[in-house]
Specification:
Layout: H1 6-34, H2 40-58, H3 65-90, H4 97-103, H5 108-126, H6 128-135, H7 142-170, H8 189-206, H9 215-226, H10 231-238, H11 244-250
Amino acid sequence: MSNIPADAFFDTLALAAAAVLVTLAITYAVAKKVHRHNVIDVTWGLLFCCVAIASFIVSAGEGDDTRRWLLLAMTLVWGSRLAWHMAMRSRGHGEDPRYAQLLEGRGELGVVMMVYGLQGVIALIVAMPLVVGSLTSEPMGVLAYVGVLVWLVGIVFETVGDRQMAAYKADPDRGPVMDSGLWRFTRHPNYFGDACVWVGIFLITAEHWPGVLTIPSTALMVYLLAFGSGKRVLERHMAERPGYRDYMARTSGFFPLPPRR
């Protein structure tokens, strides 16, 4: 590959895949012990941390150090924050109804492939901008710093949105639907924030060839968040709650917009 040493690229993939596999195996063991597979939600962000660390290690002496450190730090901040948030949110609860419905009637092999194997493969695909960006030797320019700003927007949306939802759930006098703060402008500020995070990381990588070729990875993440397993599955479950369909009618489904009358 032009501008990317092929041996370092494949070494990074091998190390990243091994780290992801070990992390998923540990997650599966924990899931069997606690009798719920939604522990994978905690691991999801950590899978990207594994790829970022592998990319950082292998790219030493190959990629631009500023970009290498930046991609590592951005991914660790995002992934560890998400993992901690999911761990706190699921603490003391049983299996997520969405997982129970998804896995109903599946054998053990089907569960492993659907929950753990699929998410491992998706994480490796989505994380390709980390691999390519870490190995890019050209210095950072304007587009990369635009990517940092987009990433910051994403982190703010995720963090503020999650805190607002936590405060809503802790309020004994709350209404039937959370529709204030960022949740007034988008039904999924956390998903929108996730999308911004990965668009920002892509922009940092896409500045130099062949980084732009990783656009399918980012497109896959945005698609899953906006139209796929993220938003679609959650809203199918939430639509049965009183007032939620009215909330859907007046509030943007993804990109933040003023509420409709």
